[in-house]
Design a protein that fits this description.
Low-confidence stretches: 129-140, 173-220
Largest sheet: 6 strands, antiparallel
Radius of gyration: 42 Å
Strand content: 25-35%
Oligomer: single chain
Number of strands: 23
Number of domains: 4
Mean pLDDT: 75
Structural class: alpha+beta
Shape: elongated
């Protein structure tokens, strides 16, 4: 028996059915290659208070959780984790291993405390294979991506080098012909390569500025923008602002609207554009843009402007507004509004469903010992059962806490019919409704 099979709690994993079975063997808690999810998420194994390899390296040893587990294993399996830990602490791990071999091993094989059978081991611990982890796969994928990037860059650089070589070979100046008289040597004419100069394009940057809001005293409405044939707009350094407010009726909302700000027809915009045929300076909304209740155009030059909105597919008339340097002007549009969209209520996750599997006979003479294994149906790819609790007589009082062990026994001393109840709990914290099974004792 290998000493690596002794778990931090003192449990001898070499006596567990998950280790002794032929297929998908578990190499034990100390190996770090567990195949059983319940053991992988064991609270004792992952306890942060333990300072060494075993639970006796803890100031709270033995803790309440370990005491409950030790009591259960003494009653069901005739073994004590706490006693094992004390043996390790006082005499060493080799002494415990020798003690366990004398108690549980004989010529017929190793005794399994869970199913009361003996197994002959055909596989060594080091031969138990574990599938490659996700981190190993990620390393392989990273190497493949690095090789692909290296090959791609090599092809690009080779293509550039070939192009440069071909260009130099094509445009290379031919040497002058050799003449008997040095004065007859012709001077070669150099090849001129045209140079293209790209001029930068300067676009105005509109910077939002917070300014006090001043509502216009009168806002006339018309179907066309203001017309003025002797004007210009200088967007550079402008500090005015035009704010458009869309106000629905009480408790209603506005969504998917379009807002437009127009210059006066015939004016010049001093950023290279003319408004002779296009008066639109700025536009917001549309294309799924939702809930436009207020739009502010900052850095607006002083002058007259026209504003309109599209609401429910219909354009309103233009409202005229005059922008002033260093001030903000507000234009209001009153609309009917829409009802807010209904809010959806999230569907709660379904509770797990439990099932009691009677592994022994369901009836027999007193005293009668029944063997149970819990079953469960639950949802969630990362979900799993964290425990089950039992009511052996159906009296409404739970006789156990949530147990990690899915294989349990109970002995009925007196004749009678007993309704066994059980609930399972999953990792997401949900507990199933009780499920039942009937035990008859003659």
């Amino acid at each position: 028996m290998d000493k690596s099979l002794i778990a931090p709690c003192g449990m001898n994993c070499g006596l567990c059915v998950y280790h002794l079975r032929e297929e998908n063997k578990c190499p034990g808690c100390a190996s770090g290659r567990l195949v059983n999810k319940r053991c992988l998420n064991c609270a004792i194994k992952q306890c942060p208070k333990r300072k060494g390899d075993y639970c006796f390296d803890c100031e709270e040893f033995p803790c309440e959780r370990l005491k409950r587990m030790d009591k259960r294993y003494q009653e069901k399996y005739e073994m004590s984790e706490i006693a094992n830990l004390k043996t390790i602490k006082e005499k060493g791990i080799e002494s415990l291993v020798k003690q366990e071999e004398e108690k549980w091993l004989n010529s017929e094989g190793t005794y399994c405390v869970h199913d009361k059978k003996r197994y002959k081991m055909t596989t060594e611990i080091n031969d138990i294979k574990t599938p490659p982890s996700d981190s190993t796969k990620n390393i392989v994928n990273t190497k493949q991506r690095s090789l692909y990037i290296f090959l791609t860059l090599s092809i690009i650089f080779a293509t550039i080098a070939i192009g440069v070589f071909a260009y130099n070979r094509t445009h290379k100046t031919n040497p002058a012909p050799i003449a008997e008289n040095i004065n007859n040597v012709e001077t070669p004419t150099p090849t001129l390569i045209p140079t293209i100069t790209v001029l930068p394009t300067i676009s105005p940057t509109l910077k939002p500025t917070a300014k006090p809001t001043i509502k216009p005293t009168a806002t006339p409405t018309s179907s066309t923008p203001v017309v003025d044939n002797s004007c210009s707009y200088d967007l550079n350094g402008a500090t005015g602002a035009v704010k458009i407010d869309i106000k629905p009726q009480s408790n209603l909302v506005v969504g998917d609207q379009i807002v437009e700000l127009h210059a006066k027809s015939g004016c010049k915009i001093l950023d290279g554009r003319s408004t002779d045929t296009q008066t639109l300076i700025a536009r917001a909304g549309g294309n799924g843009y939702s809930s436009i209740n207020s739009v502010t155009y900052s850095s607006v030059p002083p002058g007259s402007y026209s504003v309109r909105i599209q609401y429910k597919g219909q354009w309103t008339g233009y409202q005229n507004v005059t922008a002033v340097t260093g001030q903000s002007r507000t234009v209001e549009f009153l609309v009917s509004g829409d009802n807010p969209p209904p809010t959806s209520t999230p569907t709660p996750a379904p509770k797990p469903t439990c099932q009691i599997n009677i592994m022994s006979a369901s009836s027999g003479p007193a005293p009668f010992t029944a063997n149970f294994v819990y079953g469960a149906i639950y949802q969630g790819s990362g979900n799993y059962v964290t425990g089950a609790r039992w009511d052996w007589t159906g009296d409404g009082n739970w006789d156990t806490d949530m147990l990690l062990d899915g294989n349990v026994n109970h002995t009925y001393a007196d004749p009678g019919s007993y309704t066994v109840k059980m609930q399972v709990q999953t990792a997401d914290g949900l507990i199933s409704d009780p499920c039942t099974a009937l035990i008859t004792v003659q």
